[in-house]
Amino acid sequence: MHACLSESISQHFKNRINGITVEFLNLEIILQLYLLNLNSGFLTINFQSDSNPSFYFLGGENSRIIWKNENFQSCFWNLFGALLMDFEGFLDIFEIKNWMISDFQFLRNLLKQRNNKLQVYNFSVTNFDKDGLKSILQFLKIQKIKSDQKIDFANFMQSAEKSRKILENPLIMKNVLEDLDFFEIECLRKVSQNVRSCIEIVKPDPKIRKISLKFQDSNFIPMDICSKFLKNLSIFYQKTWDGYSVNRTSFDGPCDLSKIFLSDFEQILKNQRVPIELLDIQGSNEQFMDIVLGNCSSKFFGRVQVQNLSLQRLTDCQVFQILQFIDSKFLETITIMDAVKSFNLDDFSKLDQWKMAKLLTIEGFSISTPIQNLDIFNFSKMDIKVSDISMEDIIHLKAKFLESATVIKLKINFERFTNSENIQNFLGRPYSQKPHNSIWFIRIPDSQKCLHLNYVISRFFIFTRFNASCIPEDAFPDQLEYQI
User: Fold this and answer.
1) More confident site: 46 or 193
2) What region holds the DUF38 domain (predicted)?
C-alpha cells in the first residue's frame, strides 16, 4: 500500500520541488519539501513508527502529512526514491540531519540508479557520518556546501587543484564543455578566474532547446529552460523587502528586476550556436511588459535565433516589438494567443520576420484588421480568427489563394457571416453538402493544383491546396453566376 501512496505523492509534487530537508530521529523521519506555487512554501511529511498504520493530511498555513507505519523507514525510502529517481531540475537546498552510514548507503543506492548527477546549489549537512557523506559526493553536483563538522578533503583538494590547471587549457576545456549543459557551465565558471577566462575563450554552446517566460507580476519573473541535457530547469527572479532573489539565493540592495533578468538572459543566449526550437512568452501585465521591452538592449535586435515563437496575452505593439528581436533567417512559425485589447496587423507586413515565417496561428481572439487589408499570403499555413466575414471577403480570399504560389492552407474562423445565403451564387453548387458543412473544388488556372474549400456553417472556412489529379472530374463546378 505504501508503494502506491509514494507513487501518488511523487507524481503530484515531483515537478514542483526546489528544496529538500531530511532529518532522522529515533522513531521518526521528517521530510520537508520546499515547493513552488504553494502558498505555505513547503510541505512537511512526518514518517512515524506505529503498529497501527494510518495516513492523514493536515492543511492550513503549513501543510503537513502524518504517515504512521510499523515500517516507517521503508515508507520514507520508497517515497524519497520516487521523488529523486527522475528528478531533472536542480535543488536550491538539500539539507540532511542526523544521518548514519546506513542512511547514506540507502541514498547512494538511489543516486546510482539515476541517469545523471543530482544538481544541488546549497548542500547542508549536520551531525552526520563522514565516510557516509564522502560515499555520495560523486553522485552530486554541488555548488556550495555547509557542514557543522570539519572534514578532511585533502585528497579531494589536491585532485581539484590538478583539475583546475587542466581546465585552464582551452583545447581540453573545449572537449569538456561539449558534454555540459548551460547550468553546469555556469557552475564551472565559479571554480576560478583562470577557468572562467578559459571558458570565455572557448565560448561554449549552452544547447538550449526551449525557453518559457512569464511576465505577469512585476515582482516575480519565472523562466523555464529545456536544453540538450536537462529536461527542465526553472529559474525564479523575485523581489524581496531588502533586494531580490534568484531561486532561493538572496541579493541585497535596490534593483530593477527586469534589468537583472535581461542581463542573465543575454548571458544565456550569448553563445547559443543553433536556433532555439521554441521561445514561449506569456504576458498579461501590460505595464510591466512594456517596461521589460523598454529595457531590452539594442543588442537583441534581429539576434535571437528562434524557430517557433509563441506569444500569449500581449498587445499588438508588444508582439511587434518582440518580433523585431528575432533573427528572421530562422523563424518558421508565429503563434499569437489570447491577445489583450484590439489587435491590428496593419504594420506587421513591414517586418522581415513576418515575411519570412511559414506558419501563422492566431488563437483565442479576433483580429481587427479588415480581411481585405490582411497581408498574410507569404505564409504557407495560417489559422486566424475574425469578428465578421462577408461573401465579398470570401471571394477576396479565394482570389488571393489562387494567386499565391506559397499558401497551402488557410483556416479562417469567424463570429458572424453576413449575406451567407448567397454563397452558391458566388461559388457554385458544392461538390458535397451536408447539414453542417459544404465542400467545393475550384481549379487553379495553369496549375496541376486545385483549391479545396470547406465551409463549416457558422464556424469557419478552410482553404486547402490539393493535387487536381486526385479529384474526380465532376467535382469542379462548370459555371458560376459570379466570376472573379
Assistant:
1) 46
2) 301-425
Q: What is the pLDDT of residue 263?
A: 87
> What pLDDT, on a 0 to 100 scale, did the predictor assign at position 482?
42
248-257 — which CB contacts under 8 Å span 24+ positions?
248/18, 248/19, 248/34, 248/92, 248/93, 248/121, 248/122, 249/92, 249/121, 249/122, 256/295, 257/218, 257/219, 257/221
Task: Please choose, from the candidates 341, 333, 407, 339, the residue with its C-alpha nearest in 3D space to the C-alpha of residue 374.
Answer: 407
**Phi-psi region at 174: left, alpha or beta (left = phi > 0; alpha = psi -120 to 50):** alpha
Domain spans in the chain, listed from the N-terminal domain onward: 2-151, 159-202, 208-369
What is the rounded distance in angstroms from the CA atom of residue 91 to the CA atom of residue 94?
Answer: 6
Is 50 exceeded by the pLDDT of residue 484? Answer: no
pLDDT tens for each residue of 435-447: 899 999 988 888 8
Helix (H, G, I), strand (E, B) or coil at 399: helix
Q: What is the pTM of this model?
A: 0.66
Which conformational region is residue 196 in: left (phi greater than 0), alpha (psi within -120 to 50 degrees), or beta? alpha
Residue 453 vs residues 306, 366, 395, 427, 481: alpha-carbon distances, Å: 33, 21, 12, 10, 18
Q: Tell me how far CA of residue 383 lies from CA of 213, 283, 319, 380, 483, in angstroms.
A: 24, 21, 17, 11, 27
φ and ψ at residue 125, rounded to 5 degrees: -130, 135
pLDDT at 157: 44
Residue 382 to residue 274: CA distance in whole angstroms: 26
Compute φ and ψ for 52, nearest 5 degrees: -105, 100
**Percent of the chain beyond pLDDT 90?**
40
Percent of the chain whose pLDDT exceeds 70? 86
Question: What pLDDT sits at residue 187?
Answer: 63
